[in-house]
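Subject: Sanity check before I submit

Could someone independently write out the structure tokens for this chain? I want to compare against mine line by line before I put it in a report. The sequence has 145 residues.
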Amino acid sequence: MTGKELQQKLTIEQLSAIKVMVIDDSNTIRRSAEIFLKNSGCSVILAEDGFDALAKISNEHPDIIFVDIMMPRLDGYQTCSLIKRNARYKSTPVIMLSSKDGLFDRARGRMVGSDQYLTKPFTQETLLEAVQTYASISRANSQEE
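---
Independent answer below. Compare away.
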């Protein structure tokens, strides 16, 4: 086994303990993210909108949450704000997903508590970089509680 293969294997083993939620009203985006994340060993929870997500968060306790901004009923900004206002989930990393890449959109995401902002279409690499960045933070926070 080469060093790169060993490094990749260790990464998959580390990611297998990570529970990731993807909230998006687009079935295509949800399924793409699910495939990318599951192929890397993550456990994936899918939600169609903010209301669906809020119901699942309390049962599933995800380590990291990806949330689309433009959704019906409860948009990503509102969803992120509600997650971050809950004492139990305020330290859970929330990463905004959007096709908009403007400064205003990024600033508004930060104002509601998002930890990062990814532009769609995303790649497997950008999703996994975000997961790896926040996985250790999320685990450390959950152990403190």
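---
OP: Matches mine. For the report I'm noting this point. Residues 124-144 form the longest helix (21 residues).
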